[in-house]
Design brief:
388 residues; mainly beta; Porin; two-stranded antiparallel sheet
């Protein structure tokens, strides 16, 4: 009940400006004595700003907005974040060129979570190239339960530690045909653990890892847009190699597959489904294991509560637009971690379900609040764009 109340508090806080705008709630405006014109007050300007944030102006190359405020999640507790989001195109008026997007984000919470980063997708003229990127720095007080289902499922294994992370990825995909993209991918991650596990049973693990990798990415994408799709399919495969001669702490490789589909069912309603796996092998460092939990994968579980070399998950979500810029979602899902593909079975499947609220911050770009539930866990997530 406490978590539900917290969810409602965040929901009301987040929606206040939106509902005030619809109810014509304004501060006292000032009058310019020389021109007799009325100058809107501060609250009025804020409301008008968000009221217009999702409207596109014809021929405009860049649509840029900033949003910030308090948020809450079970992992990071109470925090304050700032997000600058933009949608732009290299060819205004050309319907064959997809809109590009970027976001710059910063966040700080009472649980000593600090994040700063930039991410985006850039499409060149007529989508001849698709460039996807992310760069992030994080300093986080978090928890570790071990490796493998047997260790991760034991609440008594919970140990605290802090990690510093600098990570990035970059994909340069060339279009072949109408919907196929293929190209190189580069990733790099540096993680340093402070007071690793604080004397816990996993003290043999290294306190820092360096993990650069290179590989190939293949994507087939018919989605109508990439930030809030309502129809189409997306199939993405990547094979990444992280050998020691690139500077890795230990040599390993992994491949990742994502298959997602979207279909409109009735007015304002979209059904979305996703299957995802990540298979890693050889000397995989603990910082690069496949994990379950977080803002995008199995919402409601603590981020990376369950981790092992391999992970597979599936999610089915129903998204309904309710009124103007507001919408709701509900989902069910399941996941499994395992050490190698031949050991996959349905013995220890992790269930997941939840519901959420959506507010259209920009055209096809939602701010979301999700309440997720899992096996013995639940959590609140506040984030930008859909989980998939």
């Amino acid at each position: 009940m406490t978590k539900i109340l917290r969810f409602l508090v965040v929901f009301v806080t987040f929606s206040a400006a939106h509902w005030a705008a619809k109810a014509d709630v304004y501060t006292v405006d000032s009058v310019d004595a020389e021109s007799d014109t009325v100058r809107p007050g501060f609250i009025t300007r804020v409301i008008n700003y968000f009221n217009e944030s999702n409207k596109n102006e014809p021929g405009r190359r860049l649509d840029f907005s900033i949003i910030g405020g308090p948020h809450y999640s079970s992992d990071s507790k109470l925090g304050i974040g700032l997000l600058a989001a933009g949608v732009y195109t290299v060819a205004p008026g050309d319907v064959l060129t997809s809109p590009s997007n970027f976001s710059i984000f910063g966040d700080a919470t009472t649980a000593a979570h600090f994040k700063l980063g930039v991410s985006g997708d850039h499409f060149t003229l007529r989508n001849s190239w698709w460039l996807s990127y992310e760069l992030q720095f994080a300093s986080i007080d978090t928890k570790f339960w071990g490796i493998g289902y047997d260790q991760c499922s034991l609440d008594d294994n919970e140990t605290d530690f802090r990690y510093l992370e600098l990570s990035s990825f970059f994909i340069a995909a060339k279009r072949f045909g109408k919907h196929l993209y293929f190209g190189p991918e580069a990733v790099v991650s540096y993680v340093k653990a402070d007071k690793l596990f604080d004397g816990g049973r996993w003290t043999y693990l290294p306190e820092h890892t360096v993990s650069p990798g290179v590989g190939l990415s293949l994507t087939y994408d018919t989605r109508d847009n990439i930030t809030n799709p309502q129809r189409g399919v997306m199939l993405s495969m990547a094979q990444i190699f992280c050998p020691k001669f690139l500077g890795n702490t230990s040599g390993y490789s992994y491949n990742e597959l994502t298959v997602a589909g979207y279909q409109r069912l009735w007015r304002g309603c979209t059904a979305a489904a996703q299957f995802h796996w990540r298979l890693a092998w050889d000397n995989v460092p603990w910082t690069q294991l496949s994990g379950v939990g977080g803002s995008y994968n199995m919402r409601g579980y603590f981020e990376d509560r369950y981790r092992d070399c391999c992970e597979a998950d599936v999610c089915l979500e129903l998204r309904q637009k309710v009124w103007r810029r507001s919408g709701v979602v509900a989902w069910v899902g399941a996941a499994r971690i395992f050490d190698k593909p031949e050991n996959f079975n349905l013995k220890h499947v992790l269930p997941n379900y939840g519901f959420g609220y959506r507010w259209e911050f920009k055209k096809n770009m939602n701010v979301r609040i999700d309440m997720g539930f899992g096996r013995g866990q639940s959590g609140v997530v506040f984030n930008i764009n859909e989980a998939f």
